[in-house]
Amino acid sequence: MRSFASIVVFVLLGLLSAVIIGFRSDLPFAALGYDEEQEGLNERIIIKFSHVVAENTPKGLAVERFSQLVKEKTNGRVEVQVFPNGILHSDKTEMDALQRGDIQMIAPAFSNLANRIPAWSVLDLPYVFRDQQDVEQAFHGKIGRMLFQTLEPLNMKGMAFWSNGFKQMTSHKPIRTPQDFAGQRFRIIQSPVLEAQFRALGATAQGAPFNDVYRKLANGEVDGQENTISNIYSKRLYQVQKYMTVSNHGYLGYAVIINKSFWEELPADVQRVIAEALEEATAYSYQIAVSMNEQQWKQLTKESSMEIHVLTPQEQAVWRQALQPVYETFAPVIGPALMDEISKLHEQR
Prior knowledge:
Helix content: 40-55%
Number of helices: 14
Largest sheet: 9 strands, mixed
Shape: globular
Order of helices and strands: HHEHEHEHHHEEHEHEHEHHEHH
Distance between the termini: 110 Å
Number of strands: 9
């Protein structure tokens, strides 16, 4: 009994001391204070950016630059998570994933867009651009605006055009004239225009994801392919091809696209920062595309055993003539408004 009374007295004294002295807020059992860092994590915005090429290509480097710029400009509030090399989605599945909102940004090649939206076929037309000046004028002018408008009904918003460069032909056989294509099989990005291009040259085309190109060439499933210097070099396609023709017959570029619903829900200040970062990354993409293709061209000529032929202006004129039927076939699909703009582009200078 005496022991119980002692315990009661001890507890009462403890409570009295607490009342007199006051509860200490810095003791371990005190209520946790406001954690600014934890609160910031709750407000962070994650953007998943999926693409299918290597990190050391113009597109791969531009995506990384964009991610870093967004991080710096928002002090980490917005994080652009980059998924290269098709590790998250292939070029066949990324557009559906974007529309569903599984990812927030992609940068598909124009040919992949043309499969969904026929107007984008205009950028696949052979020799549609004579040089880089034509490219930039189209992207930053009316042609670019008209193409971006076609994305809106599909819950996609066009943000920028990125460059890779002009495409060249590689093959197991030498190619100098349209007749040299006869009977050959070429891998392409799945595109009605590119299929028609190779039909006009007497060859057959096989659509396949970009990351399957090396294997298909090595196994002899296809005889050749078309690509930029940077892609031929970075994917080491020169190891499984004997010949390359510098034809500049097509242009490989990308449309940077964001999920429209996601974009519209972003705070205005975040939208502004993303737009600024994209503008800087786009300028960088143009610079790196030109410099990388030039640098890797030099490396290709030194390191590869391919026999390389550069088309003369006269040879190129023969190719243009052979490919003219592609324009006639696809003009109705593309539409008169865009075809008129292409005509104006070609009439200038």
